[in-house]
Amino acid sequence: MKAEGIGARVLRKEDNRFISGKGNYTDDVVLPRMGHAAFVRSPHAHAKVLGVNAEAALAMPGVDAVLTGHQLVADGIGNIICGWLVHSKDGSPMNMGAWRALEPEHVRFVGQAIAVVIADTPQQAKDAAAVVDVTYEELPAVVDSLAALATEAPQLHEEAPRNTSFDWELGEEQQVADAFANAAHITKLDLTNNRLVPNPMEPRAALADYNSAEEHYTLYTTSQNPHVARLVLSAFYNVAPEHKLRVIAPDVGGGFGSKIYIYPEEIVCLWASKKVGRPVKWNCDRTEAFLTDAHGRDHHSHAELAMDADNRITALRVETTANLGAYMSLFSSAVPTYLYATLLSGQYDIPAIYANVKAVYTNTTPVDAYRGAGRPEATYLVETIVDKAARELGLDPADFRSHNFIRSFPHQTPVIMNYDAGDYDATLSAAKQAANYADFATRKAEAAARGKLRGIGLSCYIEACGIAPSQAVGSLGAGVGLWESAEVRVNPVGTIEVLTGSHSHGQGHETTFAQLVAERFGLPTDNVTIVHGDTDKVQFGMGTYGSRSGAVGMSALAKALDKVEVKAKRIAAHLLEADEADITIEDGELKIVGTDKKLSFTDVSLAAYMAHNLPEGMEPGLKEGAFYDPQNFTFPAGTHVCEVEIDPATGKVEIVQFVAADDFGQIINPMIVEGQVHGGLVQGIGQALLENAAYDADGQLLSASYMDYTMPRADNVPSFKLETNSTLCPSNPLGMKGCGEAGAIGAPPAVMNAISDALGGVEVSMPATPEKVWRLAQAALPKQAAE
Amino acid sequence: MANVNLTINGKAVSAETDDRTLLVEFIREHQGLTGTHVGCDTSQCGACLVLMDGKAIKSCSTLAAQASGSSIITIEGIATGAELHPVQRAFKENHGLQCGFCTPGMVIAAIDMIERLGPDLDEPTIRKELEGNICRCTGYHNIVKAIKAASMQMATQLEAAE
Q: What pTM value is reported for the model?
């Protein structure tokens, strides 16, 4: 292994600025004459807007303008789009209600923007927004997706009868029915996947700057995908033509999916900047973030699992109702369909699967992809019902899982996915060994002697990452291609800039992408700079989400490096009067194999730009770009083992051990991968134990600050034991699978299965709060004492 | 209007501000020191921590006027010239940060914790002491490791000095 190449634990290049306060986040950017935006938001979950009176606000000090939805519509600003067209099982396209960046007539969730105030300071803008007088006619609201399906429920959108956007299916219903008819055992389950708020620590922000002389816009924004933002803002929202819009996503303080989307605030800041003739900045406060950042999860499901007499799973049937919130966000239709039901086979060889998903509007914040996006929901369902089946059959949950594992690859599931590689026995046995699974009974007895209820839980997850083959997702309704691009610019002095369409908002790309260059040319990572997050610098890109930066973004970089390598070798061969095939590159030198004749990388790059002596017909320069379109999804998988102790007196769940054994394929930097896993696990544990976006019946978000929404803190979670057991992904040049979401996908069922085990097999819903667990523990205790 | 006279990172600063100006607004907007962040508005997340007369405080829930007369150290003033503080170094060496947004607050919390409780801290103490700081990226595992490493290193430095 090279000192800074693939597999090295290189310390992060980006850390120097973050540990010394020199990061540059959107809210840190200051422009001359900058005005500040504050939004007027609906306090009602459902209401008609009868009028907006801005007179008092306009009279406030420092106020420049108050802009409303009627002006926005009159200026031809487009409605917010959903980028993935899903069809119902009857063939009809999904029903979309119109979503305007500022709503002139009919608000459908608390926090929806109605007007914006632009003032000299943020405080003046907020003061003025507070006195904008909006007259509402309140309407009845519905917040739960099952309730929204009822005939008497309040209706949100004329376009969507019974609040239903689509009623979608996947798999062969009849084949599944036949398997159930022949089943030796059937396990049934109802479960809810609780609604979460992503909560990156940096709240969203936008700073828009319109230059009237150039008719050009610049937008600084907290985005995971600035190029997608530029495309959507120009092609659909009519804010600016693409060549007149520069989008910069500088340092971004976490995303977890919530910064994929192009939100009303960015559109409004761009539009307002032209209207008021000055740069306009908006910085979200935390409660605004709770109300307006796209939420995650929120499924109700009923599932049935059929087994034959040999305890082999023969079929899975799933009915899911997915809460869309009040509007369809950018990828909201894909999350509960193609990112969810396609993973319902888990790690198991299940011959027949049928899923029916209804996507439903409610008077809540729009729901979209949050770390894992559909895959945590699938994994929670599969791993809960498999555990329940094992319990009902009297089998060890690990043995029952292993009995049904897929062992031959490639494996075509009945739900689209073709798993290309994996070794599920390896990660299961690594996890069991690290957790000392065999000796759990001793620890349980020891805990019981201390009056504690101890339980152990497994989760064998799979996910589909490396999103995604453009043609495949196109055929399923995606409105974009999901390739990635990279450009390698070798400077005359031999230092290198890599421009990538991937975006780093915590993932450490400035280090790992440089490691690929170090591996290839044997140059120190200090000689490499990674450029990302600016549409004027990086020509194209699709951004970072779905654990795609490694499998897709780095594959594009590998392709560009191939081209640079070929050209550098041609130049070296020419200068050394050797055959190209005899040139190797190591330690920053181009050598003729088996001789001491060599050139430094700088000699070659300089020659490329001096162009005094290049091979016949060769263009000067050493700069190459590449696009990479994946051949398949990638399939990271693994086993998580959670061990808990419950104090029956308080209902508090303590995680006493957590093991994750993962298969991520090729790992570029183990230190960074471990960090990704730790973070994902704590988000998963947060969902299982602490987090819940709670609405009251009127659609008020009760958990809209850190005083009400329980974020995992350091003393809620343990340190982790991590194992990796890699099988290389055959579908991309580096063999990478992706690691960013695994923790959040695998952890919730592991935790919940452990709690259920501790409580004698009862079903517990997420989050397993002390109150819930205490009630169940009181019931479980006499039973366990009797055993 | 309030008269605010204080030192920030050793530099004397005098200014007239709105009575309601928060210390974090004063630091970020008036002084242009953007390393101190605002992650919530309810003094829960700790991204806004600064040292006021050597003690970690939440600058989002302190008025600038309240800080008058004090000495403030922000994340920009933690290193000695080009030499990083042992806590800063430990965060880098132990990968105790990802997106970096909570990091300034975490570094200040760690310095305060080590100075208050003495070096060589154990894991439960570190976890309990981080109650006022939220990180969404790291799962705390490497933050705890970093603070532990820094506290041990500072213990060694103290021993060497004695």
A: 0.97
What are the chain A neighbours of B104 within 8 Å (beta carbons)?
21
**DSSP notation for A32-98:** TT-EEEEEEE-SSSSEEEEEEE-HHHHTSTTEEEEEEHHHHHHTTPPPPP-SB--B-TTSPBPP---
Give per-residue pLDDT as tens, A421-461. 999 999 999 999 999 999 999 999 999 999 999 999 999 99
Q: Which residues of B touch A680 (CB under 8 A)?
A: 139
Cα gap B24→A686, rounded to integer Å? 29
B86-161 CATH choice from 1.10.150.120, 2.30.30.100, 1.10.760.10, 3.40.390.10: 1.10.150.120
Looking at residue B155, what is its pLDDT? 87
For the residues A222-249, what does the mean pLDDT come to? 96
- E runs forming strands in chain B: 2-8, 11-17, 49-52, 55-58, 71-73
Chain B residues inside the 8 Å CB shell of A251: 99-100
Interface test with A, best of B141, B142, B143 (most A CBs within 10 A): B141
Q: Which of B89, B98, B99, B109 is nearest to B49 (CA)?
A: B109
Pick the CATH number of A483-628 from 3.30.365.10, 3.40.50.1980, 3.90.25.10, 3.20.20.140: 3.30.365.10
Q: Which residue carries 């103290």 as its tokens?
A: B158
What value does the mean pLDDT of chain A take?
A: 97
pLDDT value for A331: 96
Question: In the CATH scheme, what architecture does the domain B2-77 have?
Answer: Roll (3.10)
CA A505 – CA A254 distance, rounded (Å): 5
Q: CA-CA distance, A444 to A448, in Å (whole number)? A: 6
- CATH number given to A31-139+201-254+259-292: 3.90.1170.50
DSSP conformation class of A388: H
Provide the shortest C-alpha distance from residue B156 to chain A (in Å): 22
